[in-house]
Design a protein that fits this description.
CATH topology of one domain: Nucleotidyltransferase, domain 5
Shape: globular
Oligomer: single chain
Largest sheet: 5 strands, mixed
Order of helices and strands: EHEEHHHEHEHHH
CATH architecture of one domain: 2-Layer Sandwich
Length: 194
C-alpha cells in the first residue's frame, strides 16, 4: 500500500495567526505544496513533488512570510505557476491513494479553489483522493504534541532527522517530519487510519 503525505505553505503576515486571517486582504493563498509518496508500512519514500505557486490576490509576499519560509519574491515571480495548474499536478501525483496532512491542509486547498476560481478536481474527470487529517490521531496518542507544528514533530518525539530535512516551514521537510512521527507511532503499536 502507498500513502501521500503533504504540506502547504501559504501567505501570512505579522500577527495574522492571532487574527485568524481576519485582517483586510488576508487570505491563505498557497505558495508551496510539497508531498512525498510513501510505501506503507515500511516508510520507504517512492516519489516526491514540490510545487511553487504565484499568488493571485496578494502577489507581493510579506517580509514576515519570506523570513519564515525562506521563499523569496524573486523565485515566486520567476518560477511560480498558477494554483489551478499546481492543483492538477498535485492531484495527479496523489492518484486515488490516501493523502495525509498534519492539520487542515485539504481545507486550505479547498479555500484556494474558491479564492482562485479554479475548477474542482472532478472537472478533470478523475477520481479524487481521500484526505486524512492525521493530527487528531497523533494528538490522541500524545495530546502534548498540540504544542508543535508538523515541522517539529520529529524533534518533539525525540527522533532523528537528516539535517537537510530539518528546516521548519519547508513543505518537503515538514512531510519527512510527519513521516517520522507516523513511523514512531507504528513502532509503538499505535493504530493509524491506513
Amino acid at each position: 500500500m502507498q500513502i501521500v503525505i503533504f504540506d502547504t505553505e501559504y501567505t501570512t503576515w505579522e500577527g495574522t495567526q492571532k487574527r485568524c486571517w481576519t485582517g483586510p486582504g488576508e487570505y491563505k493563498e498557497i505558495i508551496q505544496i510539497g508531498a512525498i509518496k510513501v510505501s506503507w508500512p515500511d516508510g520507504e519514500i517512492v516519489d516526491r513533488i514540490l510545487l511553487l505557486i504565484k499568488p493571485q490576490v496578494n502577489p507581493v509576499l510579506s517580509d514576515y512570510f519570506i523570513s519564515l519560509t525562506g521563499i523569496s519574491q524573486k523565485i515566486v515571480d520567476e518560477e511560480g505557476i498558477k494554483f489551478s495548474d499546481a492543483l492538477v499536478r498535485f492531484l495527479d501525483f496523489c492518484g486515488d491513494i490516501p493523502v495525509v496532512s498534519y492539520g487542515n491542509d485539504s481545507g486550505i486547498l479547498a479555500e484556494n479553489i474558491l479564492l482562485t476560481k479554479s475548477h474542482p478536481y472532478n472537472f478533470y474527470g478523475k477520481k479524487s483522493p481521500s484526505f486524512i487529517n492525521i493530527k487528531y490521531w497523533i494528538l490522541s496518542a500524545d495530546p502534548e504534541a498540540v504544542k508543535v507544528n508538523s515541522g517539529k514533530l520529529w524533534e518533539y518525539f525525540g527522533l532523528s532527522m537528516h539535517e537537510k530535512f530539518s528546516q521548519e516551514h519547508s513543505p518537503i521537510s515538514d512531510c519527512y517530519s510527519i513521516l517520522q512521527a507516523l513511523l514512531h507511532l507504528k513502532k509503538n503499536n499505535f493504530r493509524l487510519p491506513f
